[in-house]
Amino acid sequence: MLRFLIVALAIATVSVVTAQVPPEKQFKVVNNNEFGDYITEYDASYRFITSPNASFFTRPFQLLFYNTTPSAYVLALRVGLRSEESLMRWIWDANRNNPVGENATLSLGRNGNLVLAESNGQAKWQTNTANKGVTGFEILPNGNIVLHDKNGKFVWQSFDHPTDTLLTGQSLKVNGANKLVSRKSDMDGSDGPYSMVLDNKGLTMYVNKTGQPLVYGGWPNHDFRGTVTFAVRREFDNLTEPSAYELLLEPAPQPTTTTNPGNNRRLLQSRPIGSGDGTLNLNKINYNGTISYLRLGSDGSLKAFSWFDPATYLTWEESFSFFSTYFVRQCGLPSFCGDYGYCDRGMCVACPTPKGLLGWSDQCSPPKATQFCSGGKGKAVNYYKIVGVEHFTGPYVNDGQGPTSVNDCKAKCDRDCKCLGYFYKEKDKKCLLAPLLGTLIKDANTSSVAYIKY
Questions:
Q1: 317-335 burial by CB neighbour count: b if 16+ within 10 A, else e?
Q2: Is the CB of residue 334 less than 8 Å from the CB of residue 328?
Q3: Per-domain residue ranges for the chain?
Q4: Where in the numbering of this chain does the Bulb-type lectin domain appear (predicted)?
Q5: Residues 346, 331: contact at Cβ < 8 Å?
């Protein structure tokens, strides 16, 4: 009997270890097809991927190679249809920081590892799923790319590896992939300076152009219970007639109790205030926006876009914008007025200079820290004054530190060669040092004063 149990266990163990991708599900495709004809986001060129053993298209999602510069290709998921006169969007990149060249290959072999390699066989990206029981590849209707085992369980999924975008139903997790990172630009898809990070304190947007992450948006004091999910839900769940849809940021579920049974109606608001269970309601749209995505843009913006299936023209709508007339003021976006500018009610109205406020253009530039940081031999520090102005980090750091005197605030900035200026709240006696200036926000409270180095 004991011998029988040992043999049975050995057979079971071998069957698990040797579960493999069957020959009819294996594939190897080469990046050398003709380029597609239709216009896509970032004005990117793209190539289709085809294999008799796998489908790389699940309406309206498709896996392709694309590039914005010659011979630098990214394996990416696109959403949108070629037959529509509307911009097709790139919503997931496999190898954004490690592009491949001509004749690169994407292959799924017997061992179940999905590998993107150069023409010489050098692996540039992979799922690291060799010999883990993978038996197949699939793109699900929600845009999740999965490698599954013989029971349909996901061994690997793209939803666990977000780049700058969350699709409907996709999450950030404190104990997992916990952030979105922007592109550098439309032309450069590698990691940029903006990020949105989930931690135990909240969901916070940061800009890092100086080596110091600065808060500029998000929900830094909101408890998501370790997980935040971008969701699109019907306004009323128990009706069959047409209904509005809500764009939501949902926390991890909490156990229901008899005293708080909940219901199928969620509180609506267009401000960043959650309902009783911690859900944040971003906006409401009057059509089925199930296919939507939330993106951290290369300019630091946070926007949602929704796809209206019945339309044949302009099928994509901007359905939410964090920095907007209805949510958080547009001037709060650090890049709104470029590298440097004075913003009033959503308009870039001036370029601050030692000679006063001059006409704004995208050529306005702040002082550079390098001119003050030269081993103690930097340029002599002078300041010019701007009355009634606020720094973009002010609302998130309670206007700085204090109470302190304006002279002590100046002394701190003097000693810090990376400090480009300081913001002083004369009424509250608070001091905020600024290693990055960006967009300055006009403040009706003239007791808020900026002192900028030059």
A1: bebbbbbbeebbebbbbbb
A2: no
A3: 23-161, 170-253+274-326, 331-453
A4: 41-160
A5: yes
Residue 54 pairs in a beta bridge with 51
Q: What is the pLDDT of residues 168-226, one digit of tens each?
A: 999 999 999 999 999 999 999 999 999 999 999 999 999 999 999 999 999 999 999 99
Asked if the model's pLDDT at residue 268 lies above 50, the reply is no
How far from 454 is each of 267, 288, 423, 433, CA to CA, in Å? 50, 53, 15, 15
Q: Which residues pair with 425 in a beta bridge?
A: 430, 448
CA dist., res. 188 & res. 190, Å (int): 6
The answer to whether 397 touches 433, Cβ cutoff 8 Å, is: no
For residue 346, count other CB atoms closer than 10 A to its CB: 12
Pairing mode, strands 340-344 and 438-442: parallel
Rounded to whole angstroms, how far apart are CA atoms 260 and 278?
13
Contact 221, 203 (CB under 8 A): no
Return d(Cα 282, Cα 452) in angstroms, integer: 36
Q: Assign a CATH topology to domain 23-161.
A: Agglutinin, subunit A (2.90.10)
- Distance CA(350)–CA(340), nearest Å, equals 9
d(CA 156, CA 123): 18
CA-to-CA distance for 100 and 211, rounded, in angstroms? 29
pLDDT digits (tens, 9 = 90+) for 52-77: 999 999 999 999 999 999 999 999 99
Residue with the bigger pLDDT between 321 and 273: it is 321
Strand order in the sheet with 292-296: 165-167, 292-296, 302-307, 316-321
The single-letter code of the amino acid at 175 is N
Residue 189 DSSP label: -
Task: Name the one residue in this structure whose structure tokens are 């960006």.
Answer: 438
d(CA 401, CA 286): 45
pTM for the complete prediction?
0.89
Report yes or no: 275 and 267 within 8 Å, Cβ to Cβ: yes
Residue among 1, 17, 76 at smallest CA distance from 41: 76
**What are 337-350's pLDDT values in tens digits?**
999 999 999 999 99
Cα-based angle 353, 358, 359 (whole degrees, multiple of 5): 135
From CA 64, how far away is CA 56, in angstroms rounded? Answer: 8
| Nearest partner of 196 among 335, 295, 307, 290, judged by Cα | 295
Q: Tell me, what DSSP letter sits at residue 145?
A: E
Is the bond preceding 354 in cis, omega lying within 30 degrees of 0?
Answer: no
Mean pLDDT, rounded, for 421-428: 95
Residue-wise burial string across 4-15, b where 16 or more C-beta atoms lie within 10 A, e elsewhere: eeeeeeeeeeee
Pick the closest to residue 61 from 286, 290, 320, 243 (CA basis).
290
